[in-house]
Amino acid sequence: MSTPLPVKNGLEAIENDPKLKEAWSKVLEVEQQLESIEEQMLEESAKLAAKYEKIKAPVYEKRKEVITSIPKFWATALSNHPILGSLLEEDDLEVLNHLVDITIEREEESANSHKLIMTFSENPFFTNTQLIKEFTVDKDSAQVKNHPIEWKEGKNLTHNGDSELDSFFNWFNEEGAELGELIANELYPNAFSYYQGGDSDEEDMGEMESEDDEDDEQNDEKPPQKKQKV
After folding, report:
1. Which residues form a coiled coil (predicted)?
2. Which residues pair with 164 in a beta bridge?
3. What is the secondary structure of 95-162 as a DSSP string?
4. In contact, 93 and 75? CB cutoff 8 Å
5. pLDDT in tens, 58-105
6. Residue 42 neighbours by CB distance under 10 Å
7. For 176-186, what is each residue's pLDDT tens digit?
8. If one looks up domain 71-196 in CATH, what number appears?
9. What is the structure's pLDDT at 147?
10. In whole angstroms, what is the distance from residue 131 CA to residue 147 CA?
11. Residue 164: helix, strand or coil by DSSP?
12. pLDDT tens-place string over residues 32-54
C-alpha cells in the first residue's frame, strides 16, 4: 500500500478540521514570537554594524591616502567586480579614469543608510567634483536621493538628444538601491582585493589547488619502485 502524499496546500486541510485550526492558531502565536525576536536581532545587528563602521572610519582614511598614489585604482577595482564591471561601457571607463576616491558615509544609528560619494579630478565630461547618491534604508523600504550630474556640452554619456544611451552613469538618475549596496558592502570594504582582480582568498585557494594537482601529476608520472628481495 502506497504512502499518501502530503497535501500541496496545508491550509485547505486545516480549514476542514477544528482540531487542526486550534493547533494552527498556536503555531501562529509561536511564529509571531519568532518574528519579533528576528526584528530585534536585525535592529541590534544594524547598531553593532554601525558601531564598527565608525571604528573603521579612520582606517579607511589611511587607506585613502595610499589609494591616491595608485593611478586608476578605483577604475580598476570597479572593472574587476563581476556585476559592476559588466555594466561599464568603454566611455564609462574613460570617465572612471578620473575617479580618485569613493567614500561611504554611514548613519550612526544604521549602517544600512549611507551616502555614496565618488570624487573626480577635473575631467572633460562633467563639472561636478563629486557624484553623490544617498540611501535611507529601514526594514520596510529604501529611499534614494539623486544628485544630478552636470554634463559638459556634447559629453553626456546617458542621453543623445531624446535617445537614452547605455551607461553606468544612468544609475545616478535612477531610484534603484541595489548597485549602491554592492558598492557599499562589497566593493568599498574589499577594494584592494578587487583591484588585484577579485577575491584574494579564492585566488589563494586556486593556487593551492593548482599546486596539489601538479604534485599529483608528478606522483603519477613516477614509475613504481621495485620491491627488494628479502
Report:
1. 20-47
2. 159
3. HHTTEEEEEEEE-SS-TTSEEEEEEE-S-SSBS-SEEEEEEEE-SS-EEEEE----BPTT--SSEETT
4. yes
5. 999 999 999 999 999 999 999 999 999 999 999 999 999 999 999 999
6. 12
7. 889 999 999 99
8. 3.30.1120.90
9. 95
10. 7
11. strand
12. 999 999 988 978 887 887 788 88
Give the residue extent of every domain in the chain.
16-69, 71-196
Q: What is the pTM of this model?
A: 0.71
Joined together, the cell numbers standing for residue 37 give 525576536
Cα atoms in the Cβ-side hemisphere of radius 13 Å centred on 84: 28
The amino acid at 119: T
Distance of alpha carbon 211 from the chain centroid? 31
State the amino acid at position 189 in one-letter form. P
Q: Which amino acid would we find at residue 113?
A: S
- Residue 133 identity: K
Joined grid coordinates for residue 78: 570597479
The amino acid sitting at 86 is S
Q: Write the DSSP symbol of residue 144.
A: E
Mean pLDDT on 16-39 = 87
pLDDT at 32: 92
Per the structure block, which three cell numbers stand in for 134?
544617498
